[in-house]
């Protein structure tokens, strides 16, 4: 039987995409700095991608252990890798559906075997599993090994809440209907109103039995087994939504989950080699550069990219454009207009990947043309940068609603479905004229203040984080038979939110 004074020991496993890995790593560091032992698990493929990108930049410290430096600083973070069911050479982007089918049906067996080995061998004993919400099997594995099950949601609580209430959307004909309703949705608990166009792409779809849909259905069945849900968001920004969720399960807003000293991450966790843009940025006036990036995963059409490139060219603004080689598809890499790079060479910099937080925190950056990924949104707010929104898939449409409609810290790139270079040129030119975005900049500063306050010593995220850690310990004691089975009362903060 476990000693009740021993350190809590959590296995953490992110979904194998950059946008999920980043907050998982920072949460691991934060938990370890508060006395937790962490065993962090990546897939062999993700480990290989990170190791290769670090090798190319000559910043690799220990190719077999990404957390070696963290341990040298005194943190008890161990590292393990697991097979995702595919060989390293398999193109997971080009064969996306096949890869997701593997995550659905094969990956759990590999992870189950790893957890079984760790449970038998680790000291202190494993007491907790912190798994990405999109996995469909954590409840089963946590039950099998008698572990506290924490589900980590890396996106806004609004997105979680809409998935949580898919059956309500279905019942009312806004989802999974032959002809989905287009009127305002006003019946989701904790959501005053949302337009169907602002739902996640998978809830707007007509084909509702894709592999990703099946992941979502199974994951949001499994989530009901979670002991604790944590969200990378801020209570004050999504108060009503979080209050509604807390009526079902303990749900903590502990975001934004950033490293301390955000503009200098403790080590690289990028899946791609990162270009250094600092010298180029140093040559540009303050707030004169538009940063353009559509994230680590989403794809866009060649036609849209051509229109955006043409619009950037005509706008006359300075810009850095992150263009992943697979932004259109893995097998098509020639997607810019003929002569484009030559025409913009004095005011434009195109890179395959970069240290985003270091770029957008530079004084030269005046705006961010973004796909509205959640990490990018939070980082941009933290750096006080207003947004031009061009969502591509999944939660990005709902994130845009928060940015443009609710917090008023950004604008839409295109008001019509069709992307045109005329509209791109007009939006970018107006946006980068500082006088026209004064209200946006003022609003971003206010939202940033909300983030700062939440992370302060008496802030909501900090209080929630400490209560979340306490609940893990109480749950572990209960499972070990060392308590009377009653969990500690959850705090009620000044805003009146109770669990």
From TrEMBL:
<dbReference type="Pfam" id="PF00201">
    <property type="entry name" value="UDPGT"/>
</dbReference>
<dbReference type="InterPro" id="IPR035595">
    <property type="entry name" value="UDP_glycos_trans_CS"/>
</dbReference>
<comment type="similarity">
    <text>Belongs to the UDP-glycosyltransferase family.</text>
</comment>
<dbReference type="InterPro" id="IPR002213">
    <property type="entry name" value="UDP_glucos_trans"/>
</dbReference>
<protein>
    <recommendedName>
        <fullName>Glycosyltransferase</fullName>
        <ecNumber>2.4.1.-</ecNumber>
    </recommendedName>
</protein>
<dbReference type="GO" id="GO:0080044">
    <property type="term" value="F:quercetin 7-O-glucosyltransferase activity"/>
</dbReference>
<keyword id="KW-0328">Glycosyltransferase</keyword>
<dbReference type="GO" id="GO:0080043">
    <property type="term" value="F:quercetin 3-O-glucosyltransferase activity"/>
</dbReference>
<keyword id="KW-0808">Transferase</keyword>
